[in-house]
Amino acid sequence: MRSLVKTCHLMILFMITMAIVCPAHSAFSYEREIANLSSILAADIAKSGKKSIAVVDFTDLQGHVNELGRFLAEEMSGNMTSQSQGFDVLDRNHIKRILEEQNLSLSGLVDPTTIKKIGKLTGTDIIITGTITPFGDSIRVACKAIETETGKVISSSRGDIAKTATIADLLKLGVGSPAASAGDTKDTATKAPVTGTGWSGTWNTDWGKMTLNEQGNHVTGTYTFKNGRIDGTVSGGVLSGKWTQSNGSGRFEFTMSDDGRTFNGIWGYGEGLDNGIWKGTRR
User: Fold this and answer.
1) Do 204 and 283 contact (CB within 8 A), yes or no?
2) What pTM, to 2 d.p., does this model score?
3) Separation between Cα atoms, residue 71 and residue 78, nearest integer Å
4) Is 190-282 a CATH 3.40.630.30 domain?
5) Is the model's pLDDT at 24 over the cut of 80?
6) One fold for both 25-172 and 190-282?
7) φ, ψ dihedrals at 20, nearest 5°
8) Is the pLDDT of residue 16 over 80?
9) For the segment 125-161, what is each residue's pLDDT rounded down to a tens digit?
10) Beta pairing partners, 240
């Protein structure tokens, strides 16, 4: 009898423990699964010798973006940045702007021609795409690493994450218009203008952190993406000159805002200025 009571007590204790542990296990299963998928892709990308990576929003099978796809892509991007292989991971907001400027959709990234075009515009070697598909109580996440020069898939991985209440809510939410960013005029209008510093200082830009030094009308600096360097001349509120990276060089033109806190810019390969937008916010 005592043995039976003891067994019942142990069973109840086990059930209580599982009730506590299992929700926590499910809640964080997506982290482990995305980390695992990232490791598989990173190993294959490292073998290819490629370093520059862009992670775009994950979509459903029809190419539609929702908040879950955006969230998982952010997690993937963070994991790829922290990999020991030393990848250059392009800012995802910059990728989004390029897609919008070129009137390209994420569903078009199955086209090798589009992939090559994005690779040329951004200077990235690899684009990571992903799809999310609900299956009952779980969601299948499938990822691909695509070489931009050839359009060839060099790695793929897939896994399942638990469809918790939070994950289900993100799955239902479509992506709307983003809120105003810290660099928008609504935000900066309430701040005091920056005076007396010119272009010198540190900036958060589409191509990573940029540090500039202004001497007279001459400005030199560096930025993190592909060990970039710039050398330019100031005329009024406009800084123009040459950018140089490990994968090429070209021209740029930055126009500083009236309050000195942001700049809007354009850039291009060679002597052109038609390849994309380059924005920055003073740190």
Assistant:
1) yes
2) 0.56
3) 11
4) no
5) no
6) no
7) -80, -45
8) no
9) 999 999 999 988 899 999 999 998 888 999 999 999 9
10) 233, 253
Domain ranges of the chain: 25-172, 190-282
Class (C level, CATH) for 25-172? alpha beta
Give residues with Cβ within 8 angstroms of 265, minimum separation 6: 252, 253, 254, 255, 277, 278, 279, 280
**C-alpha to C-alpha distance for 239 and 68, rounded to whole angstroms:** 39
88-91-97-99 Cα dihedral, nearest 10 degrees: 50
* Segment 24-27 long-range contacts (CB within 8 Å, at least 24 positions apart): 26/162, 26/164, 27/164, 27/166
Digit-coded pLDDT (tens) for 49-100: 998 999 988 988 878 888 899 899 999 998 888 877 788 888 888 777 777 7
Sheet architecture: strand order including 126-135:
88-89, 52-55, 126-135, 138-147, 153-162
- Closest by CA to 252, choosing from 216, 211, 207, is 207
CA distance 283 to 275: 26
Q: Which two tokens stand for residue 11?
A: 């069973």
What's phi and psi for 42, nearest 5 deg? -60, -40
Q: What is the pLDDT of residue 265?
A: 87
Distance of alpha carbon 107 from alpha carbon 64, whole angstroms: 8
Tokens 């190419």 label which residue? 63
- Residue in the structure block whose two tokens are 């942001």: 262
